[in-house]
User: Which sequence fits this backbone?
């Protein structure tokens, strides 16, 4: 396996920059939204089940690690404009997610402003750390995670469906952002495949074998929170295989043969 970073090649950096400009132009044109004016806050439902509010809180907690996501992912790519500007813009978009989820929790009466401040303090007492040490693996992980995150929001929307127009709108807007993130990072993985197919496929296999959502290890009661998400049928292994893994390998043009483990010993 070659050991160069995809960021080393000027052609690869140019492709990433073009992908970022396409992403940014589309976001400016079609996807910007406003927390105060684009949510029907007057229609918030104060009697939706506490279990749904608790899942909203789980998602809000994961979004609250934003300072670590930006602070730890930006320095290694500062000289790669497409990657660095994407992280800045991505950070802006992600920053709205915890804000809008927090606003819904407070306006729906499920949490007080004081509880949310305490929650943020508790969450930020732990640091998120990058899970993968190479740009290839880190980007592949982010691609999986963004698509999985979009499905978490979309499926929570289905569970809560129609009972709280404010929450429906929040989840629509946030899941549309997450879909755009997943799409950008998939474009990046396609560029990495062009840059070095073999190294990218090896990194892909490694990430698939070790994948886990951030809530699991980050949050003090992460196990319980992941279990609640599973029991509401918002996300589980089956959703991961059928709606994350399979569509991604299809769209990246990877085959079963590409993803077979390398034979270390001849069988006969
Ligand atoms: Fe987000
Ligand atoms: Fe995202």
Assistant:
């Amino acid at each position: 396996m070659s050991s160069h970073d995809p960021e080393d090649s000027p052609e690869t950096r140019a492709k990433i920059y073009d992908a970022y400009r396409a992403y940014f132009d589309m976001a400016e044109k079609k996807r910007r939204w406003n927390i105060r004016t684009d949510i029907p806050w007057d229609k918030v439902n104060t009697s939706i089940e506490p279990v749904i509010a608790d899942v909203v809180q789980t998602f809000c907690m994961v979004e609250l690690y934003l300072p670590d996501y930006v602070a730890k992912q930006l320095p290694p790519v500062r000289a790669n404009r497409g990657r660095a500007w994407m992280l800045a813009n991505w950070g802006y978009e992600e920053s709205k997610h915890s804000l809008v989820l927090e606003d819904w929790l407070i306006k729906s009466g499920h949490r007080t402003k004081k509880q949310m401040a305490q929650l943020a303090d508790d969450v930020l007492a732990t640091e998120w750390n990058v899970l993968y040490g190479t740009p290839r693996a880190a980007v592949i992980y982010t691609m999986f995670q963004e698509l999985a995150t979009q499905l978490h929001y979309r499926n929570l929307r289905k569970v809560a469906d129609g009972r709280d127009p404010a929450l429906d709108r929040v989840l629509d807007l946030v899941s549309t952002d997450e879909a755009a993130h997943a799409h950008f990072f998939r474009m990046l993985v396609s560029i990495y495949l062009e840059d070095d197919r073999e190294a990218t496929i090896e990194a892909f296999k490694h990430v698939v074998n070790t994948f886990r959502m951030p809530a699991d290890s980050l949050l003090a009661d992460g196990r319980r929170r992941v279990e609640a998400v599973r029991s509401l049928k918002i996300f589980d292994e089956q959703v991961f295989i059928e709606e994350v893994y399979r569509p991604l390998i299809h769209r990246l043009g990877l085959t079963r043969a590409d993803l077979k483990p390398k034979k270390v010993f001849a069988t006969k």
Q: What stands out?
A: Residues 63, 94, 97, 178 surround fe (ii) ion (ligand 1) (CB under 6 Å). DSSP finds twelve helices and no strands in the chain. The chain has one domain: 19-29+47-259.
